[in-house]
Amino acid sequence: MKSRKQSVIVAWLLCLFCIVVASVGLVTWLLDQSSWPTLFDFVEAFGWGWALPVLFSVLAALIISRQPRNRVGWLLMLPALVTAVSPQGFLATPPETLTPGRWLLLWFDTGSWILVIFPVFLIPLHFPTGRPPSARWNWINWLAIGMWAVFMVLVAFDDTIGPLNYTWRLPNPIGFIPFEEVEGPFLIIWGIGLVTVVLASVVSLFVRYRRARADERQQIKWLLYAGAVFAVVYSTLLIVNSGVGDDSIRGWTNLLLVLSILAFPVAIAIAILRYQLFDIDVIIRKTLVYAALTGLLALVYLGSVVLLQSIVEAVSGQESAISIVVSTLIIAALFAPLRRRIQGFIDRRFYRRKYDAVQTLTQFSRTARQEVELEALTAELLRVIQDTMQPDLVSLWLKPEKGNDFRTNTG
Asked: Among 23, 177, 162, which Cα is nearest to 103's?
């Protein structure tokens, strides 16, 4: 009990530290601005510098206060701490002299990104119980710790040292390993180890899902949903950013990336703390329906605008806004029927059991309106309940006319 209270106190103190440091950094950044910042700069300061450490630390403290031995809470707290104390603002320009304090700051900054991504990569391994699926999966933890230790040792003895963004480098007074060796063969081997950690952690989550109970599967679905959203957003933004150099678009893409990352701690906290409040299957189903609907409507809209515009230009010889108006009306007319068709296809393909149950109930409602024989109606009702809910035993009690006993039909 005492250790539990100590863990909770430490968690909330760390959370308070993250909030204070991140808030001070945000206020300092705002005061330093001589003009209104761009959306990209604002997302960098507010999203990455403030929202990420605050949200991660608060949700981590909530998880730790409920389940102090659950490693997932501590894995969320570590990126919050590292992000909050990031020394990037102090490393914009090279110092005149490299003091021991500045050397430590540079050394920490170079390896800080590992303390941000590795805990996130290890969350699937420990989710949702806080432990790997079995003891045989512990090698992933030791591999991650070993990779971080090796990296920090090599950075300490690299012949040059500088900030993580490599804007400048200084000679390392204790370094003797050539920078080219660290950036060359070592990174290839180290990258293989990184991929191994990520893939093994994800595989362990799927192994746990196959062996899990129904409630634990619902929890895992929350994490998988957040991961799928991040994967779609990240892959899409890679394509967009590679083809577009506009600063305003880069600002919006940066905002979407931050929001997709912040979905991770939210989904984890809901799954661990109060997952029963929400049905994740409904959220997944709605996401599939409206994502497909949005994509199809966008294609129809763009195609109709191009087609109608070309027809108008061919007839009148000039551009007209009528193609946009007509395309908008087409989209409005297609929205409802297309949504029903997409929802029906997704229900048949991914939610077959629920779809069959809905169809059975619809058929029973038609039968109930037409059937006049009580015996036939009760038999049909028992059949429908058996098909849709699949209970071990179905019993139906009917209240007959006065003076008679209750009549029971069992199936």
From this structure: 162
Tens digits of residue pLDDT in 15-65:
999 999 888 888 888 888 888 888 888 888 888 888 999 999 999 998 898
pLDDT at 208: 92
Q: Is 292 in contact with 343 (CB distance < 8 Å)?
A: no
**Side-chain half-sphere of 217: how many Cα atoms within 13 Å?**
8
Whether residue 382 contacts residue 409, with contact meaning beta carbons closer than 8 Å, is answered with yes
Give the amino acid at 48.
W
> Which pLDDT score is estimated for 45?
84
Are residues 326 and 312 in contact, defined by beta-carbon separation less than 8 angstroms? no
Whats the size of the chain, residue-wise?
411
What is the band of 317 on the pLDDT scale with cuts at 50, 70, 90? low
Q: What confidence tens digit (pLDDT) does each residue in 33-45 have?
A: 888 888 888 888 8
Compute CA 370 distance to the chain's CA centroid, rounded to the nearest angstrom: 49
Buried b / exposed e across 78-102, counting CB within 10 Å, b at 16+? bbbbbbbbbeeeebeeeeeeeeeeb
Residue type, 180: E
Q: How far apart are CA 199 and CA 15, in angstroms?
A: 30
Whole-angstrom distance, CA of residue 388 vs CA of residue 329: 40
What's the mean per-residue pLDDT of the chain?
A: 78
Q: Which long-range contacts (CB under 8 A, 24 or more apart) does 91-94 make?
A: 91/163, 92/167, 93/168, 94/162, 94/168, 94/170
pTM: 0.69
244: its two tokens:
């577009």
**Is the link from the previous residue into 128 a cis peptide, with omega within 30 of 0?**
yes
Residues 6 or more apart whose Cβ sits within 8 Å of residue 123: 72, 75, 76, 201, 223, 264, 268
Rounded to whole angstroms, the Cα distance separating 219 from 208 reads: 11
With 0-12 / 13-18 / 19 or more C-beta atoms within 10 angstroms meaning exposed / middle / buried, residue 268 is buried
User: In the structure encoding, which two tokens stand for residue 324, read together?
Assistant: 């946009």
